[in-house]
Amino acid sequence: MKRALITGINGQDGSYLAELLLEKGYEVYGIMRRKSVVDYGNVEHIKDKIKFIYADMTDAISLINAMRISQADEVYNLAAQSFVATSWEQPIATAEIDGVGVTNMLEAIRTVKPEARFYQASTSEMFGLVQEIPQKETTPFYPRSPYGVAKLYGHWITKNYRESYNLYACSGILFNHESERRGKEFVTRKITDAVARIKHGIQDHLELGNMDAKRDWGHSKDYVEAMWLMLQQEQADDYVIATNETRTVREFVEIAFKTVDIDVEWQGGGVDEIGIDKATGKTIVKINPVFFRPAEVEILLGDATKAEKALGWERKISFAELVERMVKNDMEFVAKEIRMINI
């Protein structure tokens, strides 16, 4: 029985990865930060199947201890301060967790079990001000946020440890991936949650920033399979994981509302643009400049050809299905909230 250690296990990706590894017969260990109230997050439904270890990415000793306890054959580093907007407000914390934290984990592996295989969750935000379209493994990086910069350090230190110490260490440069388990602070879940609340009549409108930002969106469940595949190869390498499609925030909004039978009609432009419910004439989308980034990433479009050929990986869930899944899940969630209030 293989042993796997997952950092960030109670997040979106961590939960899907834990499910996948349990299905494959792994003994799964998960790192959790100690809090006054235990929060299993997205792994609440499988918590009895996971062995939890309290540790922190900024505490190297605790990570060494986690490696000694788990004796993991595979380590998946998914822990991060992953909200881009917060990285401007907390740049040092972001650097410590997303950058130095990766080094701490690599040192723990090198100290305790150097034969273990390591996966680092890199990000398309490292491309930032894109130098070519589409972006692939050889595209130069140009991060546009403290988050992207910190992640770039994590990416390069992983490569450095692979080449310096012959560790099996690889990075997955994952483009935007969402799911029903995405946190509400992320724009995609913010949209689907608002759509559900507007449809149920408990919210008037949705406020967003840059409607023209383009992203390559896939489903987290597909992407964690790519993580696992990377650690099953003979040689460690880095791979872009993407859908090879790019969509605007505006398109995401339109499909989300369409899922609940609301057609959006756009009026005006710039910060004065609004989205109107065609049937009622009500304003359901507004632009709020507070949500603009200090330095915007205008377009991300990934080329996953290498992963498709070398790993045999493929995206199964389409963009439209992704959005529909998220909206339907939030429709049920909001309906439950309303029932609880009315009890």
Assigned CATH superfamily of the largest domain = NAD(P)-binding Rossmann-like Domain
What proportion of the residues form beta strands (DSSP E)?
Answer: 15-25%
Structural class by sheet pairing and helices: alpha/beta
Number of helical segments? 10
Radius of gyration, in angstroms, nearest whole number: 20 Å
Q: Mean pLDDT score, rounded? A: 96
N-to-C span: 47 Å
CATH architecture of the largest domain: 3-Layer(aba) Sandwich
Q: pLDDT under 50 segments (min length 5)? A: none
The 3D shape can be described as: globular
> Count the strands?
15
How many domains, as an integer? 2
Q: In CATH terms, what is the fold-level topology of the largest domain?
A: Rossmann fold
Percent in helix: 25-40%
What is the makeup of the main sheet?
Answer: 7 strands, parallel
In what order do the strands lie side by side in the largest sheet? 3-2-1-4-5-6-11
Order of helices and strands: EHEEHEHHEHEEHEEEHEEHEEEHH
Broad CATH class of the largest domain = Alpha Beta
Binding site for NADP(+): 205
Protein name: GDP-mannose 4,6-dehydratase
Family: Belongs to the NAD(P)-dependent epimerase/dehydratase family. GDP-mannose 4,6-dehydratase subfamily.
Function: Catalyzes the conversion of GDP-D-mannose to GDP-4-dehydro-6-deoxy-D-mannose.
